[in-house]
């Protein structure tokens, strides 16, 4: 019997952006494989191609060469089975929390009553029941990201693509949302791609951390984080991983600085 295909498989992917006669080689010979249900973090210096990689998996962009496979098939057009959450996920300001979360279902012709029931289930899961009838401008940044997460989850995606979703939040809120996300992930066991440039965040969350090099982005290291959950920040093994990853990341960031400052 054939082996079950990987949930996500990226093979020899290259991507160069060309604009105004300038070329930016963003991804170079990137390879990675992700098992169904894994929580993967992509970590790397700013501009190394993390968002580009996520966009390729989402189907928002195409690789120049190589392949991006989900369940063994090439990724096609964007689909709600690969839901995205961004750093500042724009909610519809004229819709309340419940209607924001229900929006995708309503667009998919789910009857309004059912859409609201299903949406409310996810509003509850992100602890916003009391705010179901509030509007986005009445919410804190953390609450708005919770709505964005509920809006992605309500579509019951196979893969949740999160591009620095907590990047704009204060440290306290960030920690609370990390815990909530893990709780949701442990209940649903969906595959998660989570982009961050925060090493603690990556090691706290991930089964596997991919460290991407400075541009052109290549996989610089793959660390399987073998620490049981719930993880405690002071856990010695976890700190070893952080130390190791920080070392690698530090080298890559230095390269970026040298490039930008023009030093040798
Ligand atoms: P990261 O998310 O790791 O910060 P990105 O994937 O957003 O990096 O971008 C990598 C590089 O590609 C950056 O230099 C960025 O300016 C460039 N880039 C990204 N998208 C485009 C685009 N659509 N057109 C031209 N250049 C782009
Ligand atoms: Mg980015």
Written description of the protein model:
- The chain is α/β, with parallel strands linked by helices.
- The protein has helices spanning 50-58, 97-107, 112-125, 141-153, 171-188, 199-205, 236-261; strands at residues 8-19, 22-34, 39-43, 65-70, 73-74, 82-85, 159-163, 191-196, 208-212, 219-224.
- A 6-stranded mixed β-sheet has the order 6-7-8-3-9-10, with helices on both faces. A 4-stranded antiparallel β-sheet has the order 2-1-4-5.
- The protein starts with 7 loop residues before the first strand and ends with a helix.
- The site of adenosine-5'-diphosphate has 12 residues, from β1, β2 and α1.
> What profile does the largest beta sheet have?
6 strands, mixed
- Tally of alpha and pi helices: 7
Quick one: overall form? globular
Strand adjacency order, main sheet: 6-7-8-3-9-10
Spell the H/E element sequence: EEEHEEEHHHEHEHEEH
Give the proportion of residues in helices.
25-40%
How many beta-strand segments?
10
Bound molecules: adenosine-5'-diphosphate, magnesium ion
* Low-pLDDT residue intervals, each spanning 5 or more residues: none
State the end-to-end distance.
54 Å
């Amino acid at each position: 019997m054939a082996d079950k295909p990987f949930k996500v498989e990226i093979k020899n992917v290259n991507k160069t952006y060309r604009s105004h006669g300038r070329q930016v080689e963003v991804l170079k010979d990137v390879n990675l494989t992700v098992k169904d249900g894994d929580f993967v973090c992509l970590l790397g210096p700013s501009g190394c191609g993390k968002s580009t990689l996520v966009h390729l998996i989402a189907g928002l962009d195409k690789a120049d060469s190589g392949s991006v496979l989900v369940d063994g098939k090439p990724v096609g057009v964007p689909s709600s089975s690969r839901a995205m959450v961004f750093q500042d996920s724009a909610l519809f300001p004229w819709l309340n929390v419940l209607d924001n979360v229900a929006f995708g279902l309503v667009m998919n012709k789910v009857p309004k009553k059912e859409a609201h029931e299903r949406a409310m289930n996810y509003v509850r899961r992100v602890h916003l029941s009391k705010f179901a009838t509030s509007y986005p401008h009445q919410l804190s940044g953390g609450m708005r990201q919770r709505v964005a997460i509920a809006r992605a989850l309500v579509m019951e995606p196979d893969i949740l693509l999160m591009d620095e979703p907590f990047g704009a939040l204060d440290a306290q809120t960030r920690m609370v949302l990390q815990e909530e996300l893990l709780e949701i992930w442990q209940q649903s066991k969906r595959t998660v791609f989570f982009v961050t440039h925060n090493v603690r965040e990556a090691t706290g969350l991930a089964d596997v951390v991919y460290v991407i090099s400075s541009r052109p982005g290549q996989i610089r290291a793959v660390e399987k984080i073998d620490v049981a959950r719930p993880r405690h920040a002071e856990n010695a093994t976890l700190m070893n991983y952080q130390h190791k990853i920080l070392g690698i990341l530090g080298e890559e960031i230095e390269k970026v600085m040298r490039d930008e400052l023009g030093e040798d």
